[in-house]
Amino acid sequence: MTTARPGGGVRALGASLLNQVLAETLDPAYQQAADARARRTGATPEDRGGVRLRSGRSAGLVAVTLLATGLLLTTAYNQAAAESPGREEARAALIDDIQRESAVGDQLAGQLEELEAEVGRTRDRMLESSDEGQRALEELAAAEAGAAAVTVTGPGLLVTLADAEPEADDDPVGGTVTEDPRGNVRDSDLQLVVNALWAAGAEAISINDERLGPNSAIRFAGEAVLVDFRPVTNPYEVRAVGDPGGLSAGFLGNEDVRALGLVSATYGLRFDYAQEDELTLPAASPPELRAAEPAGKEAADAGAAESGAAGPSAPAAASGSGVPPSRTPDDEPEPAP
Which residue from 7, 18, 39, 143 has the least number of CB within 10 angstroms? Predict the structure, then answer.
């Protein structure tokens, strides 16, 4: 856009506007407001210049602060990016170690089973040669059956418990699933089912191929259910060998089982049962043999033999066997206050 000069000629408005913007860094309206405020407060032009100088210094400090913050963030990001490959390598190495050690453990467990089977066959051959050995074998078989140390196969009842399935609305795109803890199977639920099956006449019971013996325990640790200190995962299959009809009638007639069915329907847990013609339950791990005897019994017996009279044995601090007693987590002493 152009306009005519008073004396003739043409003047460019764009050039004059650019010159004005470059010459006047402060908008005239802001300048007028600043002058009016200075007149009211009695500030001199030198004071106003000092204010502008201080404002410029503050802006410089802000710029320096932002620059330093940016440098720190950049340095932290670079360090994290540089350490990330190292963390991934360490994690991969740990996974490899776990898999390698697990494979070694499985191999040793297989060798142990083969050796135990060989020892059992050799023992049976030696005992079968005499009548006394036959009676010992019969007693041993009864003891192994009572300790759940042998594999059992027969008809029975299969009970399945599983956590509630998440609803479709609980898993939006890009979101997370909110789980209700009341919809998860707990150790008390499995204990209830197992006790009801024992009461109904079950001869042998297992949970996810973990055979239950006389000293078995079902516990809850964090988010995992432990059977004899071994974790079992969802879904939980409880197999019970026995008369299918009697097991079913006794199990369903249990009041606690009916209450568990109501809880399962309320919170969406899976609770199924079915009669099976053939179930196979593995043998439990050999139990740890523990025996108790009065402390100091040998010394007391020796003293009584010398004196010719038997008396009560005196208590002692240790049994003197040289073998420390076995311990379980339940035997740990309470911490001192």
Answer: 7
d(CA 267, CA 180): 9
Note whether 266 and 258 are within 8 A (CB).
Answer: no
Render pLDDT for 118-152 as a digit per residue (tens, 0 to 9).
988 898 888 888 888 888 888 888 888 888 888 89
| Cβ-based neighbours of 183, under 8 Å, separated by 6 or more | 163, 164, 267, 268, 269
Q: How confident is the model over 192-221, as pLDDT tens digits? A: 999 999 999 999 999 998 999 888 889 988
The answer to whether the predicted template modeling score (pTM) of the entire model surpasses 0.70 is no
Q: Please state the separation of Cα 96 from the chain's center in Å.
A: 20
Peptide bond into 337 cis (omega under 30): no
What DSSP string runs through 235-271?
SEEEEEES-HHHHHHHHHT-HHHHHHHHHHHHHT-EE
Could you list the beta-strand ranges (E) of 114-233. 152-162, 204-207, 210-211, 218-221, 224-227, 230-232
Q: What's the helix, strand, coil split of the chain in %, to 5?
A: 55, 15, 30
Instruction: Identify the architecture of domain 152-164+182-281 in CATH.
Output: 2-Layer Sandwich (3.30)
